[in-house]
Design a protein that fits this description.
The protein has about 230 residues and is an alpha/beta fold. It is built from eight helices and nine strands. About 35% of the residues are buried.
Length: about 230
Amino acid sequence: MGNEENKEKEEQNDERIQEIGQLTLDENEKKFNIHLLSVIGEIEGHECLSSNTKTTKYEHVLPQLAAIEDNKNIDGLLVIINTVGGDVEAGLAISEMISSLSIPTVSLVLGGSHSIGVPLATSTDYSFIVPTATMMIHPVRMNGMIIGVRQSYDYFKRIQDRIVSFIVNHSKITEEKLLTFMLDTETLTRDIGSILVGKEAVEAGIINEIGGIKDALQKLYVMIENNSN
């Protein structure tokens, strides 16, 4: 590949990172094409957030995930997560899309994977978390005015049940233990829930292993090789 082609490729990668936080990793020894998806900041749903807020827009991510599934040249997906959470429906939609991909998938939690970021972290075939990263688990929260009737509380519970079910079905944690973390009243000073740091998330069964980017990529290489045999 000539210098001009290299420069053009770098410019295209820079543009994709700037616009949607994604690019293809294809310079490894294995010559695998690995799509990198970053879930950064707040997950934006149907309502647009402030331009000063770092966001992951689900209307960008969902079509890209569909394109990945349709592309026979993509060998695997690496999801890097550092999110404070965000829109529940958007987060669940992305999680469901990732979990239904036919190619090998690995997630890596950096910084934090809070709230709806928890099912995102468990949506892949295998998951890693760095030692200092945190995962915040708490009941469903809603912003804005809420009508205080039974139907509203039933609706919140149904959403929460969907989140709990997804996490339990895509990790090793039991429903009982997950609800214990979610409804803890002693960890957070002004809220209900729990914060798990690195190894604690692994011991709880939410994340598979402690590790960094090297570990995540090596695991993905192995999974791709096994998938092709």
